Amino acid sequence: GRVKRQKYNPEREQKLKASAVHLLRSHQDLNDLLLEVEGPSCKKLCLSELIACEGPEPYTNHSGSFIGSVLRDEASRLGVPVGVLSARVVASSMEQICTAVAEAGPSAALAPEQRKKLSSLLETAQHLLAHGMFSRLIFCQELWKVQNSLLLEAVWHLHVQNIVSLQELVESHSDVQALGVWLFKNLCLLCEQIEESCPDMDIARAMLSGLVQMFVLSGFQKHSDPRRTVESEKMPQVAFDVLQRMLTFALDALAAGAQDGSPSHKAVTCWFGVFSGHTCRGITCTDSPKRFFSHTLTQVLTHNPVLKVSDAVQMQRDWSFARTHPLLSTLYRRLFVMLSPEELVGRLQEVLETQEVNWQRVLSCVSTLVVCIPEAQQLVSGWVARLMAHAFESYHLDSLVTAFLIVRQAALEGPSVFPSYADWFKASFGSTHGHHGCSKKALVFLFKFLSDLVPFEAPRYMQVHILHPPLVPDKYRSLLTDYVALAKTRLADLKVSMENMGLYEDVSSAGDVPEPHNQAPQDVEKAVAVFEHTGRIPVTVMEARADKIPPPLYSAYCRACSAAEEETPEDAAPGTGTEPGCAEEALGQLTAALGELRACMRDPDRYDVVSAQMAVISERLRAASRHGKDDGSCEMSKVRLSVVTPKLKQQEQEVVDLLLTSFCQNLMVASSFAPPERQGPWATLFVRTVCGCSLLPEVLSRLCQLLRLQGLSLSASHVLGLAALAVHLGESRSAFPEVDVGPPAPAGGLAFPDLLDSLLTCRTRESSLFCLKFCTAAISYSLCKFSSQSRDVLYNCLPLGLIKKFQFLVFRLFSETREPPSQEDTAGLPWSPACLAPADWQRAALLLWGQSTFQELLKEKDLHQDFHQWAIREHYLPAPAAAGGCDGDLEVACTVLADALMDFCQSLRSCDHSENSDPVPGGHTGNQDILSRLQEMAVELELERGGRSPSRGHFLFRVFRTRLQALPRGWDVAACLQRQQELLTYKRLLLRLPPSVLLGSFWAGPSTTPSCEDFFHLVNSELRNFCSHGGALTHDITAHFFRGLLQACLQSSDPSLTADLTLAECRSECPLVLTSALRWWPRLEPVLLRQWGRRCQRPLPGELQRLQEAQRFARDFLSPEAASPPPDLAWVSAAAVHFAMRRVKKEDVRRQLQKLDCAREELLVFLFFFSLMDLLSSHLTPKEAVDSLKAVAVCAEVLTCLQKRRMPWLVLFQLTETDAGLGQLLLRVAPGQHARLLPFAFYSLLSYFDEDAAVREEAFLPVAVDMYLKLTQLFVAGETSAFSLLATRNPELQGQGNPVELITKARLFLLQLIPRCPKKSFSHMAELLADRGDYDPEVSAALLSRQQAVPDDLYQEPHLFC
Question: Are the C-beta atoms of 335 and 296 separated by less than 8 Å?
């Protein structure tokens, strides 16, 4: 039957254990015991099961105790310590585990199954070790007995799990060399397995990292000698030995040309990875990693030093960064991380001075140094300078050799990282400051060295030496000519065409061996030009005559050439530089390199990565573009291209398009990860690399095509990319030659900013919009990119022409930018990959304009003030008239500007219908910049003419006349308002120009006066009618005239005479100016007195004194005291009294005019006229309506006095412009509308007429009839509507001023007056009624009837004024 399962019983378990021990003592195989043990469940247990711990927790503890008990019993039986027995048993078990793995092939790592077994074994060992039953020393000894069977991972686990440390294992080994070899082989196996992506990659990498850290710490301790042999310090020896073996293996593999995928290549790749920094990052508070890296660099530089200097001279072209093995260049870059640039250069210098070196490694290290470290250029240049100084001080050839090799190697990497060899050679030997100029010995030393180089060096270096020879005193010229002859001989032997190179060769030609063509004519022209300029035969011509080389020098040259051909160096390690077989292959390699650069844009701030890739691109670019100047020694003095018709060959365009597309794509990718200011110098390196001298003409030609001819078809990303490219071209402009674009551009070269300015045109709306996009992108990118740098850097990178064009377009396209910018700064600059999308470019431009940073830039460069000046001076003024310009005529420009400015003001007025809309030229809503330019040009025009007045008058008044002629004439409301608006604009423009404009030009002399005819005509014909009030111009224009008068007087030899003559002319030609002066005299007088006294230091001129006297008379006239005698001119005195009366209160009018009875007749007549003007003004101007009653009171008082004294006042209502005296004078003072409205004033005073005088004076009736007919005509024409409106609004007038009522009263008055008037009053009545009789038939009939009546038919008159 089925056996029943028994329950667990501890006592029974102890009995079973005792029985098992007895059984084992009978058959003692301890190895089997460790690998197979019966557990509590009576199952067979293996090591793998112990690893997995599948049983319950007490299981492992019971197994360890059980095994320990067995080992203790067996050790007792054998008479050996239990620790020794345990160590031997565990060692034997490890051997079995490792042997099982080794059967599958060489390996440094365990298989998963063996790893589990080892883990279980090590747990047992830890239990034994914890209970003092395990001897570490015996265990180490037992392990090394089976060394060949051990795996590195097993040994590593012993160290990690603290069974026995690696140092204990090393110290217990008897043969240090054998141990180093074992560790080296296992490390190589481990590296291979890591590169093959073994299953347990993490364990393998952790093991490699841990071992390297231990080796570095032990082998490169401070103050320790790695080569010591003390037995107790084996660990440092072994550590140093293993690291050295690994480095030697790696360098040998590279020298042997290890193929990709080979075991050695995998091992080297993995081993170089330990220098990446991650491995040594765990080593803290110690300098061991730094010493390790420094030692490694030294070993790399000195490994296998078999190449000679001559080999280096011949082959260094193949040792550039791009042609260096990637693994080696990667190792250099990782070593550079731990050492500072100064330490690197110091280590190179020390190694070169103290040890034999591998020139290939040294020079490839120099290339990597200058490519990957931005500070290297300055440090290497300083190092070379020290070498040169030492060489010529001690005539130390090795120092000179080293300096030349280093400079040539660094220059191979292009101008983006190091100056060209030609530049260095010129700077070192092309002046009197060179080291070679100190003595003849130094010259011999230099030319001996250069001559020794000739058989080995490339033709391009000899070309540099010939074209830029060292500066040599005349007495030692033979040294130079001998060398030049030798170098030319070598070039001829190499079949380098001397005709193509010429005497004045530009080394920008492509390749070392150019195609021949006849250069002689150009050489002759250049030689003649040099001779004409200096008076000497050029040195190159003298050298060209040397046709024999000294025999000793030639013999040495021949021997060296033979030796160079026989001893072709074979020990140089192969690089990766292979010349492409065709153009398509070269273009493909360049495309691949540019693609790798785009992958670097995820972290564009990594200088070493980006610069390294740019070096590769530079190498690929030379092959693709067939520009073979490997040392960057091109020296274009000028780039020649055609802006109008730029052309490129197909291959050139393919290469340039590839480069420009790559730049735009890289910018987009980089900008998606970081803003421009955090993108590092990748763009600068790109531009300096691909736009070096070799490709600069092609790049600029393509830019001409894209910006000038294809701009409208460019996408937003292209615009952004090309804008950024332009910024970086500006940044590097000091390294680029000038550009000769040919006609129609001016003669001479253009700097790149000027070229860019010429490419961006604004001739059409489409081109203007493209220009705005480009400028917005370039300026925004610049402000972002260089935000943390000084403004000088920004100014150097950003062409000012772009800023000016941006201003020009923003002002023209966006009216809101013409206002002063607000002080609020926006969140950030608008630069982003999508900022110029079709819907966003306007917003981007406006955001940029509002930026405080941009506004500060404008202020610092003083561009706010000179923008329009630049636009006018540089473009509009010199442009031909056919193209809309001015042909250089300043007066034409002023005329157009003034006309445009007034058009601008009128357009603003028409767009703004608010009550306060009153645009001012240059005011808040005007264009202040254009006005400022007009002001400057007006003054310049006066200075240009030297004070002469043009025969056709001042340009500004011609503009006024032309514009006024285009306006409709008439006195209807629309025409008057339009004319008034135009004249207000004229006046305001006049006020903002120099006051000399009003007085014209002036010739200094004793009797000459300023030419005021234009201004007088404007006042009499226009300003009098629309810009004057009550017989006076406004204060602003009056004060402006007197400022001009003072200025003219100060330029005169007799200021008083000039003032008197000018004001006398005003009196006769433009009396309104004098009445205006009297109106504003209280404000004018203090200024005139102060300025005249300060500048002339003499009494006021007579005419100004007359104005003073008139003002004094008016003041006395209105005072109760005795009045001073009136001045000679009654109308001047009357005007003064009239304006003084304006300051009198209404209720005081009668009292103030008490002296009227004593006034002269002429004064009263003129005063009555001015009072009539005030009366009309009070009705026509709503703001003065409250003074209408006062005006009536003044007129009534004066009229009463005139009638009482029987003075002829009716003449004032019969004035004509043909009158030579009174009419001509007063009608030039009164506005035309006031003169036409005199009938209204006449009948407004109807109630104040003297009844007897009306009948008695025969002139009264004709005047009254004429005034009535004219009043009726005005009413019919609607010109009295203003009076009706005022009478309705002002209750104080009590019906006075209502035209209908006034006409009714006038009609009744005439009908009553006509029968009473004598026959004489009707003598000219028919003429009066001609063409106007039908205005009022009843009045006309009464007049005609009375005219036909009996002369003496009198009857009782009715009362007319009841």
Answer: yes
pLDDT of residue 1360: 43
Q: Which residues contact 1151 (CB under 8 A, 6 or more apart)?
A: none
Query: Contact, 368 vs 651, CB < 8 A?
Result: no
952 has a pLDDT exceeding 50: yes
CA angle, corner 1173, sides to 1167 and 1179, nearest 5? 140
- Give 55's contacts (C-beta < 8 A, 6+ positions apart): 39, 41, 45, 49
What pLDDT is recorded for position 402? 95
Whether residue 1189 contacts residue 1146, with contact meaning beta carbons closer than 8 Å, is answered with yes
For tokens 């007895």, the residue is 22
Alpha helices of 196-287 — where are they, by DSSP H? 201-219, 234-255, 263-272
Say how far residue 1143 (Cα) sits from the centre of its chain. Answer: 62
Structure tokens at 1224: 């001509």
Two structure tokens written together for 684: 């600068």
Residue 924 has pLDDT above 70, yes or no: no
Residue 1328: Cβ within 10 Å count: 18
**Phi, psi dihedral angles at 640 (to 5 degrees):** -105, 125
Buried b (16+ CB within 10 A) or exposed e, 972-981: eeeebeebeb
The mean pLDDT value of the chain amounts to 80
CA dist 389 and 370 (Å) reads 22
The pLDDT of residue 1356 is 43
Helices (H) and strands (E) in the chain, counts: 66, 4
**What confidence category does residue 766 fall into, taking pLDDT thresholds of 50, 70 and 90?**
confident
What's the N-to-C CA distance of the chain in angstroms? 165
Asked if 1188 and 1034 count as a contact pair (C-beta separation under 8 A), the reply is no
Rounded Cα distance, 309 and 1339, in Å: 131
Q: Which residues of 691-716 are buried (b: 16+ CB within 10 A; e: fewer)?
A: bbbbbbbbbbbbbbbbbbeebeebeb
Q: Is the pLDDT of residue 248 over 90?
A: yes
Residue 646: asked if its preceding bond is cis (omega within 30°), the reply is no
pLDDT at 651 over 70: yes
φ, ψ for residue 1356, nearest 5 deg: -65, 120
Residues counted in the chain = 1362
Q: What are phi and psi of 37, to 5 degrees?
A: -135, 140
Higher pLDDT, 1359 or 154: 154
Q: Report the 3 state secondary structure along 301-351.
A: HHCCCCCCHHHHHHHHHHHCCCCCCHHHHHHHHHHHHHCCHHHHHHHHHHH
Lowest mean pLDDT among 357-371, 657-671, 873-887, 1039-1053: 873-887
